[in-house]
Design a protein that fits this description.
The complex is a heterodimer of chains A (299) and B (461). Chain A is mainly α and 299 residues long. In chain A, 79% of the residues lie in helices and 0% in strands. The chains are: A mainly alpha (299), B alpha/beta (461).
Chain lengths: 299, 461
């Protein structure tokens, strides 16, 4: 057994050496902080007050408090709506549609396709905080471009962030993140040889059938990974929402990552904020496991 | 607990008695401090504790308005002149107070904080409990200028029987109104609300006057309003309706008849009088202050210091159009304001150069600098002799603000207050956004307080 292990280690030495820099960085910047958060979630660690001077182990107190927190259900529901709206329907489906359109246009050499490509990409290369301010400039009640536009046509202004705050942040996040899925799908679509479509067209297949029978099966593995990636990234995002509504009005856009941030750094309750992050991590992990199993089973 | 209550009660009495004395002193030209005001440049900052100061003194402070840097530079220069072996490194953070505070706490928590820093005096309890700050008793006991600080000011920076911070100006708040907007709505230029309802009535009159681009009223609410949601809105309203934050046993009061009335007031204010954008804006006060300054907002209860921004932009127009009155009560009883120790200078308990840090605080708080700074950034001066600085006493506004301190009520100096503010933000946001009715929001306020502070520290009436 020992010999076998040593033999396997020997064979894999080069492989392990190649992996170790990445593993080290992941351990340092992801596993380490995550473990710290888990440890911190069992304490009453705070940035101010007596708990800051003498943090102590409080067992499951933070978890009990979180699961009896009347706001937490609301926060989870907000997160689910935000992920479904901006990650799945917004970034994923819209990104796929845009990629299909652009691929169609580029295969036919339409010049405007590059303009669309550039516009979508621009939204993505902006830092999130800039994207947030751009949307603030649009949604702002008094001076925003949307209400200015309404004023020009004589319509009354709309309190975009007050009346439909969740829709507003979903639109902004969709705009911001669609380029990622679009790029991935566009790359995948370009690997599909044109003769497959030629043959299908000769056989008289409709555009939908060509998509369903040929495009979709080729895209499926990459679609699964993209969906996983955008879902998890969106679940953990908060800067855009912080810039636009800061979770308001009255918790209507408070998502789990923002709630963790507010508790840890606005209310200075680091232990409780860590507990929220740990629950967020657990939900993300559970989602990833279920999703990967499901996509492997289908493959 | 009884000990804490006794301290609080004695502090309140101190404030009431001694604020009055400071007003008299500040307003009377004959009652100047014992000597001529020392200047930052020429004062030997060595003081009684003396001794040569060497090494680097790391000073950190936030300032978005840009009024403090020249005085900080002046104090630093005075230190370098008096102590050639010392160097002062200044870290000016041009960010909001909340952001600065979070950054500072993270630095203090990791042991990398500055030697001396500048944050609100309401944080004294929670900073002292966290062992982040150095008690200043041994320093002030040897500082002759400490005699210039009235008992009211001293007790405002005292927690658990120790002095923890040196303030430069005290906080007070006004109900500001635009005379031009109110006149257009048919109200008098020297308008005075007869009671709390009078504020809403005036706002309604402005609304009905349909003036273009004029908002009737802005009422701080929700987490976006930061501590202003408590200090500029909920707390004075609670007091106006006869309520208190804590009962005589030191328990925080959740639901009560007064709390319900405050919530009902919020519901009325947010039913078309106060803009809901306050709930979703980042730093909503920026727009609120700007709009009152240019006449696009008619009514706002705000910090006294905000007047300085309007006055420096256009003194004549501000004096002509911006009126200020005390907060009314429900029944038309005596009007009042809400006071506070203002922004203070602290020494980090982990500082490697505490003597240097103290010398900087002294150099920064000479009568001259305190007077000039408060003339630009208007607060009632923390030290009596600063009221005699020409720039300060030249303004009628400064005298009015100082006189108003006599009518000030103070929030209990309890380290739990920041958690109470959090619950207040949630409760007011729920009513303002129309999620809960006033009575339900008041009940939920008790739940939020209990959640944050523990059932043994909360009661309802």
């Amino acid at each position: 057994m020992a010999v076998a292990t040593r033999g396997r280690l020997g064979r894999n030495r080069l492989y392990l050496a190649g992996l170790s820099p990445a593993a080290f960085l992941l351990a340092l910047f992801f596993v380490g902080p995550a473990l710290w958060a888990v440890g911190s979630s069992f304490t009453n660690r705070a940035l101010v007050g007596l708990d800051a001077a003498n943090p102590r182990f409080v067992g499951l107190d933070n978890y009990t408090r979180l699961f009896s927190d009347p706001d937490f259900g609301r926060v989870i529901l907000n997160s689910v709506i935000f992920v479904i709206g901006s990650a799945i329907i917004g970034q994923f489906v819209l990104g796929l549609l845009l990629a299909l359109l652009l691929d169609y246009a580029q295969r036919r050499g339409f010049l405007a396709s590059n303009l669309v490509y550039g516009a979508v990409l621009l939204a993505w290369v902006n830092p999130t905080i800039i994207a947030g301010f751009l949307w603030v400039a649009m949604f702002d009640f008094y001076n925003g471009s949307l209400n200015t536009g309404l004023g020009v046509v004589g319509a009354p202004p709309i309190n975009w962030l007050g009346q439909g705050p969740m829709l507003a942040v979903i639109i902004a996040n969709t705009w911001r993140g669609t380029a990622f899925t679009m790029l991935i799908f566009l790359g995948a679509l370009r690997t599909i040889p044109s003769d497959i479509y030629e043959a299908a067209r000769v056989d008289g297949a409709s555009a939908f059938r060509r998509f369903w029978d040929h495009t979709l099966p080729i895209l499926r593995p990459i679609a699964a990974l993209t969906l996983l990636s955008v879902t998890m990234a969106t679940f953990g995002t908060f800067i855009l929402i912080q810039t636009l509504t800061n979770g308001g009005p009255a918790f209507q856009t408070e998502v789990i990552a923002l709630y963790a941030f507010h508790e840890a750094f606005q209310n200075h309750a680091v232990g409780y904020g860590s507990t929220i992050s740990v629950v967020m991590l657990a939900l993300n992990l559970a989602f990833a496991v279920v999703f990967l199993r499901w996509s492997r089973a289908r493959a | 607990m009884d000990e804490v209550v006794r301290q609080m009660m004695s502090r309140r009495r101190f404030l009431q008695v001694a604020v009055a004395s400071s007003v008299v002193v500040a307003c009377s030209p004959s009652s100047i401090g014992s000597g001529a005001p020392t200047t930052g440049a020429s004062a030997p900052p060595g003081g009684a504790s003396g001794g040569a100061v060497t090494g680097t003194i790391n000073v950190s402070y936030p300032d978005e308005a840009g009024l403090k840097p020249k005085y900080v530079e002046q104090a630093a220069a005075a230190i370098k002149t008096a102590f050639p072996g010392a160097d002062v490194k200044i870290d000016l953070q041009k960010v909001g107070d909340d952001d600065y505070y979070t950054k500072l706490l993270l630095a203090l928590d990791s042991g990398t904080g500055p030697d001396v820093f500048h944050v609100g005096g309401s944080s004294i309890g929670e900073l002292a409990d966290a062992s982040y700050i150095e008690p200043l008793d041994s320093y002030v006991s040897q500082w002759a200028d400490w005699s210039q600080y009235p008992d009211s000011v001293r007790s405002g920076v005292t927690y658990k029987k120790s002095v923890w911070a040196i303030p430069y100006g005290l906080d007070m708040r006004w109900l500001y109104y635009r005379k031009d907007d109110l006149q257009k709505a048919g109200l008098a230029a020297d308008w005075q609300p007869a009671n709390v309802q009078g504020i809403l009535d005036a706002a309604t009159a402005v609304k009905n006057a349909n003036e273009a681009n004029v908002l009737p009223y802005a009422l701080y609410a929700g987490p976006a309003g930061s501590s202003g949601t408590a200090d500029h809105a909920f707390v004075p309203l609670l007091w106006a309706y006869g309520g208190e934050l804590q009962d005589s046993g030191g328990k925080w009061i959740g639901d009560s008849p007064a709390t319900k009335k405050v919530m009902a007031y919020y519901a009325k204010a947010y039913d078309g009088l106060s803009p809901k954008e306050i709930l979703t804006s980042t730093k909503p006060w920026t727009a609120m202050r700007e709009k009152l300054g240019n006449g696009q907002l008619a009514l706002l209860f705000e910090g006294g210091w905000v007047y300085g921004g309007w006055a420096s932009a256009n003194k004549a127009a501000t004096e002509q159009n911006v009126g200020y009155v005390l907060h009314p009560t429900e029944s038309g009883g005596p009007s009042f304001t809400i006071g506070g120790p203002g922004t203070c200078w602290y020494i980090s308990s982990k500082s490697a150069n505490k003597q240097g840090a103290w010398e900087f605080i002294k150099a920064m708080n000479t009568a001259e600098i305190v007077g000039k700074l408060n003339a630009e950034d208007p607060h009632p001066v923390a030290r009596k002799d600063a009221a005699d600085v020409a720039e300060y006493k030249a303004s009628k506004y400064n005298l009015d603000a100082t006189a108003a301190l006599e009518k000030a009520k103070f929030v209990p100096p309890d380290p739990g207050y920041s958690k109470v503010i959090e619950a207040i933000q949630k409760a007011t946001a729920r009513v303002a956004a129309g999620e809960l009715g006033p009575d339900d929001a008041a009940k939920r306020y008790t739940d939020d307080l209990t959640q944050a502070l523990g059932a043994d520290k909360v009661t309802s009436q």
